[in-house]
From TrEMBL:
<keyword id="KW-0479">Metal-binding</keyword>
<dbReference type="Pfam" id="PF07883">
    <property type="entry name" value="Cupin_2"/>
</dbReference>
<dbReference type="InterPro" id="IPR013096">
    <property type="entry name" value="Cupin_2"/>
</dbReference>
<protein>
    <submittedName>
        <fullName>Cupin domain-containing protein</fullName>
    </submittedName>
</protein>
<dbReference type="InterPro" id="IPR011051">
    <property type="entry name" value="RmlC_Cupin_sf"/>
</dbReference>
<feature type="domain" description="Cupin type-2">
    <location>
        <begin position="37"/>
        <end position="106"/>
    </location>
</feature>
<dbReference type="InterPro" id="IPR051610">
    <property type="entry name" value="GPI/OXD"/>
</dbReference>
<dbReference type="InterPro" id="IPR014710">
    <property type="entry name" value="RmlC-like_jellyroll"/>
</dbReference>
Length: 117
């Protein structure tokens, strides 16, 4: 059994999010996708950005607003969103007190393999 604890795992600040890298997991497994646990602080937003990877968000706590390209919608616990590669996106936490947390799973499409993510 391999275990990563929340208390012992490192966090980085990237694109306006507090990020905990889940996969790849050094010394355990390198799947064909990567995954992070992302948290947006109350009343804050991620930096609008796009990248070479397709991405799926699974919202696990909080509520907020999401913009993907020109589409916008409210998001909440349990929502799952697909973001195509190259599409600008931004997540906003609309709460005054609680973080907005989601799992991001991202991967390169076969045509994009070998390019920078």
């Amino acid at each position: 059994m391999h275990v990563k604890t929340d208390a012992d795992d490192a966090r980085i600040r990237k694109n306006g999010c507090d990020i905990r890298q889940l996969y790849p997991w050094d010394g355990v497994v390198v799947p064909p996708w990567n995954s992070t646990l992302c948290s947006i602080r109350p009343t804050e937003s991620s930096t609008p950005h796009g990248h070479a990877t397709d991405e799926t968000f699974i919202f696990i706590s909080g509520e907020g607003h999401l913009r993907v390209g020109t589409e916008e919608r409210q998001i909440t616990l349990g929502d799952v969103v697909y973001v195509p590669h190259g599409t600008d996106h931004k997540v906003t936490n609309t709460s005054e007190s609680d973080p907005l947390t989601f799992v991001s799973i991202y991967w390169l499409q076969p045509a994009e393999l070998g390019k920078d993510a």
